[in-house]
Amino acid sequence: MMCPKFMGKRLSSEQEDIAEEWVQANHPEWLVLIMGFKLQDTSLFSKSMFSPEVKEKLAMSQWWQLVEKRSTKNEDLRSFCQFIVKLEEDDAELIYRKLFTNREEDCMFQRRRVEGAFENLVKRHLFGNDTKFKEYFRLSINLFQQVLALIEGDVAARPCNRRRQPISVEEKPCLSLRYLATGESFRSLAFQYRISHSWIGQLIPEVLDAIIKNLPIYLPALTTIAFEAIESSFHELWGIPNCCGAIDGKHV
C-alpha cells in the first residue's frame, strides 16, 4: 500500500481497508500521512519524489529513508517512515498477520514444508518426470529452469530472524504457473500449497512482474484484416464468436 512504485495497486480493497483500520486504531495521526501519500501531497512530500525515475530506481525502503531525511521538522512523518522501513526489512507476511489480524498463524500454513503440494507433489514426483510436469504446469522442466534462471534474482526472499525458511525461489514460480495453467482461485491454491490466499495474492504479481521485466515476449504485429480472418476461422471451425486467438486452450 505504501510502495511508491505501485501506489497500492498490488493490494485488494479488503487488505487496504484492514491496514487503514489498524492505523486508525493504533496511530490515527498517520492517516493524514497515508492520504497525503495517495494524493501525492506536495506539502508533505517533495514533488520530485514521485517522479517516474525516482520511483523506479529506488527500493521502497530507500524511498522512505530519503523522505525521513528530508522531514526534519515533522516528527509524525519521521516515525511513520521508520515504521514503513521496518516493515520492508522484516518478514512482511508475519508482520501482516501480527499487526492486521488478531490470531495466530493457522497450523495448516505452518506445515507447508511437510504437507504442501510443492514438497509432496512437485519436488518428489514432477521434477523427475518431464511428461507429468508439463501436464501440471503446461511447460517443460527445461523451459521452467530457463525462466527461473532469469527471474530468481527478483523473486528470492532473504531469510530473517522471524522466518528462517521463506517461500523458496522455486516454489513461487511453480505456484504462479499453476495459477496461470488452471485459473484456480487463490483460496483453492492456498489449501494445496499451504500458503494463505492473501499472501498468494502478493506472490503471483511479484513473479509476473519479474517475468515481464526479464523475459520480454514479442508478438507479431496484426492488422484489423488479420484479426477478422482469425475470428472468422474460429467461428466457422469451432462455433466460437469474437475469438481472435487461444493460448494453451484458454480462449482470448
SSE blueprint:
Elements: H1 13-26, H2 31-39, H3 52-57, H4 60-70, H5 75-89, H6 92-100, H7 107-110, H8 112-115, H9 117-126, H10 130-137, H11 141-155, H12 171-182, H13 186-193, H14 197-214, H15 224-238, E1 246-247, E2 250-251
Antiparallel strand pairs: 1-2
Helix pairs in contact: 4-5, 11-14, 12-14, 13-14
Please explain how this structure is put together:
This is Transposase Helix-turn-helix domain-containing protein. The structure is a single chain. With 252 residues, the protein is mainly alpha-helical. The protein is 63% helix and 2% strand. It has helices spanning 13-26, 31-39, 52-57, 60-70, 75-89, 92-100, 107-110, 112-115, 117-126, 130-137, 141-155, 171-182, 186-193, 197-214, 224-238; strands spanning 246-247, 250-251. A hairpin with a 2-residue loop joins strand 1 (246-247) and strand 2 (250-251). It is globular.
Key features of this structure:
mainly alpha; two-stranded antiparallel ribbon; Transposase Helix-turn-helix domain-containing protein; single chain; 252 residues
